[in-house]
Amino acid sequence: MNNAYALKAAKIIAQEKDYHEHFLVIKNGLIADISSTVEQGIPVIPLGSAVIVPGLIDLHIHGREGCDVMDASLESMHTISSSLACHGVTGFLATTVTSSWQETLDAMQIIGQSATQIMPGAQVLGGYSEGLFFTNEHKGAHNEQYFLSLTPERIDQLITASNQQLKVLALAPEINNACEMTRYLAQRNVKVMLGHTDATYQQTVDALDSGASGGVHVFNGMRGIHHREPGCTGAVLLHDTNVEVIADGVHLHPAILKMICQLKAPEKITLISDCINAGGLSDGDYQLGKTDITVKSGIARTGSGSLAGSTLTLEKAVQNLSNMADVQLRDAVHMASLSPATFLGIEDSTGSIAIGKKADLAILDPSGTVHATLIQGRTVFNAKQLAFSVQLQHLTNNS
Ligand SMILES: [Zn+2]
Q1: Nearest to 15 by CA among 339, 396, 366
Q2: Predicted confidence (pLDDT) per residue in 305-363, tens digit
Q3: How far, in Å, from the CA of 221 to the mean position of ligand 1?
Q4: Are 94 and 14 contained in the same domain?
Q5: What is the CATH number of the domain that holds 233?
Q6: Do 215 and 151 have their domain in common?
Q7: Neighbours of 300 (CB within 10 A)
């Protein structure tokens, strides 16, 4: 059993329930057991008051620490990957933003490469095309100069450039052929998310009936709810479909966060960061794709005042949702792990703490700060000041 070890923590947020003062046994990179005792001979790493949660999965993230997916560079992807691991993220969809067609294809190509290799931190689970196929009214930070019509040829080009790693494409339901293109994408295993749109309730319902999977950052960048025209927002909230939520306390009022959580089952809510290249850096002037933005007090806006992504981290989103929307911590955690894993269809192997799944884990202190991140039982981030850090590094990387 020298490739096995156990983590002992004050709390383990497992898929079925929370365990207290239990051992999480990891063998060959998989979760082998959750138990109150541990077999003799298995090395134990005591984590004291720590909380072990599943590794977080960010379905919608543009960049971090000065690097953007649109840089179309492996180096930038490495920086983003490492930076995300410091925040408990073990997997993410690299998300593009509206730019020229060629720059979009270039970014997709690097996403495809990144998704098929081992990254230093969080792994690239595929690509998310956010951009190009939107309309002006709720464009946010997307530069309408580059908007294009959506055609089967363009879809094929994106899929090919990404080396079949394109997982999600966002579009506005009111564009030409939206329903037809939604069916075309669904047949090619690309999920359609609806956003940056002025679509009516009915236009949105039609897209959902054609196979669209939900709403991009719900409420933000879409027609809001009017009692005689419930809009895209009303449609994605009412229907049994996925919604992305930015829980930074800025994009959505705490009361709206609460309302979303009362309306939707937890497995249909996905916490996303929508983080941009300014994430992890100080306030100042940045660019999101082709748009100049200013970050002040951590809030990113375009010159016209539109919110432009965020500087949020996912572990903070979990804390925020739990605090602001009266959601149990275990539900909030699973909205950033099991929900996105289920959305991607990888929930059998990751996304929660359950026996037989990969040991993709984040170790938090009781206040929610990430102390370590493990992918398949190996540390990809380990805050140096921790007493157990040397032992954790040694054991997990030799397992
Ligand atoms: Zn957006």
Answers
A1: 339
A2: 889 999 999 999 999 999 999 999 999 999 999 999 999 999 999 999 999 999 999 99
A3: 7
A4: no
A5: 3.20.20.140
A6: yes
A7: 26
Q: Give the Cα separation of 62 and 168 in Å (integer).
A: 14
Closest CA to 261 of 212, 324, 306: 324
Q: In sequence order, which residues have a C-beta less than 8 Å from that of residue 360 and are 6 or more positions away?
A: 54, 55, 90, 91, 350, 351, 374, 375, 376
Considering the domain architecture, whether residues 144 and 31 belong to the same structural domain is answered as no
Examine the domain organization and report whether 131 and 265 are in the same domain.
yes
Q: 281 and 235, same structural domain? A: yes
Q: How many domains does the chain have?
A: 2
What is the set of active-site residues? 274
Task: Compute the distance from residue 204 Cα to the ligand 1 centre, in Å.
Answer: 17
Name the amino acid, one letter, at 107. A
Q: Give the Å distance between the CA of 61 and the centre of ligand 1.
A: 10
For residue 362 the two structure tokens come to 């984040």
Task: Return d(Cα 102, Cα 178) in angstroms, integer.
Answer: 22
Examine the pLDDT at 300 and tell me if it is beyond 60: yes
* Chain segment 69-94, per-residue pLDDT in tens: 999 999 999 999 999 999 999 999 99
Q: Which two tokens stand for residue 348?
A: 């059998």
What CA–CA distances, in Å, run from 339 to 256, 317, 342, 345?
Answer: 20, 14, 5, 10
CA of 121 to the centre of ligand 1 (A): 24
387 C-alpha to ligand 1 centroid (Å): 40
Report pLDDT digits (tens) over 180-206. Answer: 999 999 999 999 999 999 999 999 999
Whether residues 274 and 393 share a domain: the answer is no
Residue 259, number of CB atoms within 10 A of its CB: 15
Kindly report the number of other CB atoms within 10 A of residue 255's CB atom.
10
